[in-house]
Amino acid sequence: QVHFVESGGGLVQPGGSLRLSCVASGFSFASRYMSWVRQAPGKEPEWIAAINTGGFEKTYADSVRGRFTISRDNTKNTLYLHMHDLRPEDTALYYCARNVWPMLDRPREHDYRGQGTQVTVSS
Question: Which of 43, 31, 32 is nearest to 96 (CA)?
Fold first, then answer.
């Protein structure tokens, strides 16, 4: 069955960096568009980044554009999120999700997601 395992979260000071990883299994990872989504306490989930199958086309939410980079390694069935210049408002549970549609202008619909990894930005 479809399964994701995220890792790399933790406590970081404002201005710091983290790299999140998501290892996928149970489906043909290289053939699916993928996303990162986050959910802060008491808030709705927020889609933040998506990537096409080959990894050369990407799209971002305004809240993270220029600070976060999504990437993938299809040989390792792994999705990444490189986060820089982290801010307290980036504190959330981050999880990877499989996109329903193979197009970057519809990145917010997902059919499977992982359990997530917690990122806390605080001094």
Answer: 32
